[in-house]
Amino acid sequence: MKLFHALFLAGATMVATFSAHAETDAPVKLGFAKCAHCVSMGLVPDLATGVKIEAINFNSGNDVLTALVSKSIDVAQVTYLHYVTALDKGFDVVAISGQVNGGSELLLPNASPIAADDWTGLKAAIFKAKTDGKPFRVGASRGNAQDIHMRGMFLKNGIDPNKDIQFINIPNPADHLSALQRGEIDMIATVEPFASQILQAGAGKHFDYPYDQAAGKLTNLIVTRSDVIKSRPAAVQASVTAVVKLVDMLKADQQVWIQAIGKYTGLDQKIAAAALKNAYPDYAMYRGSTQAIAKMMRDLNYISHDVSADIDKNMDYDFLSQATGKPKSELGY
After folding, report:
1. Of 210, 180, 208, 182, residue with least CA distance to 194
2. Residue 109 CB neighbour total at 10 angstroms
3. CB-side neighbour CA atoms (13 Å) of 58
4. pLDDT for residue 59
5. Strand, helix or coil at 314?
6. Which phi and psi (to 5°) does residue 327 adopt?
7. In this structure, is the dihedral angle defined by the CA atoms of residues 238, 280, 170 and 221, taken in order, positive or negative?
8. Residue 213 near residue 154 (C-beta atoms within 8 A)
9. How many other C-beta atoms are found inside a 10 Å radius of the C-beta of residue 321?
10. Cα–Cα distance between 46 and 238 in angstroms, integer?
11. Which pLDDT does position 120 carry in this prediction?
12. How far apart are CA 174 and CA 57, in angstroms?
């Protein structure tokens, strides 16, 4: 019996060890979007220990979210807007870390008579266009952070984005410049580094950084699914730890960030450097602000349900706390 017991314990230990190795040996598929504050995620594989991470680039956050919920990838960089939208649709998504915030800018055609930050003038132009039967056309990539930042600013300034403007969906932000140049839109809510590309090409002018609304500067979240957390907790932990290392690195050295932007967007270093003036690395997850974002999105008819309970349930601070050594009270909870 003693021999049997010893063999049983040895076997159980071997199984547990094999399972732990299998969990971390399989690569974690990590998806991220093509924007200045997103593409730094391509650096995460080199910062990971104890797990192999395969970084996959997508054109937009919508594409990344689709890949996550369809189980094509394991971990995703999306936006707070994507996270709230996913919860509204009943998708299994769990936020596990912040990443980089900011990156949004509202631009006008150079010929526009509206001055920077002149919301009174913009509102007058929008209502005149509406009265004249030629709606003011605002372009953005539907479903990304810039879309919600823009809509929140409109709402705060007495402009109904669902009734007072004509929304033009331009899914790939790389196409924002050409849409502005061709006169297809009267304003663009765009993302870095494409905002800096437009400005440096002389194709548009600055109007506002749209952060004076419920979402503030909040942009990116790292999310996964509950089945991934259950089956691969060590791999999820290693991934979050690598993201924390990334944030610390971006704060200390922007040159690696600039190189990543060039690699994934093809834009030169001058544009990349300008883009980073509007980017704020931060691994915290802001629960209270996420609740405010969800309320704003419901006010805008962007979502149809109250997801406040789902937000509290599906923000897991354990991995971030382990990676940073900080309690969740210091991480945005």
Report:
1. 180
2. 16
3. 20
4. 86
5. coil
6. -75, 160
7. positive
8. no
9. 17
10. 12
11. 98
12. 14
CB atoms within 10 A of CB 3: 7
* Cα distance from N-terminal residue to C-terminal residue, the chain: 52
Q: What's the pLDDT at 110?
A: 95
What is the C-alpha separation between 321 and 170, in angstroms, rounded? 38
pLDDT at residue 30 is higher than 90: yes
Tokens 């924002």 label which residue?
A: 176
| Nearest in space to 194 (alpha carbons), one of 219, 168, 173 | 173
**Residue 7: per-residue pLDDT:** 39
According to the model, what pLDDT value does residue 13 have?
43
DSSP 191-251: ETTHHHHHHHTTS-EEEE---SSTTTT--EEEEE-HHHHHH-HHHHHHHHHHHHHHHHHHH
Average pLDDT along the chain: 91
Closest CA to 282 of 63, 113, 37, 83: 37
- Nearest of 107, 167, 109 to residue 301 by alpha carbon: 167
282 phi-psi bin (left φ>0, alpha ψ -120 to 50, beta other): beta
DSSP H/E element including 56: strand 53-58
Kindly calculate the radius of gyration of the chain based on its CA atoms and give it in whole angstroms. Answer: 22
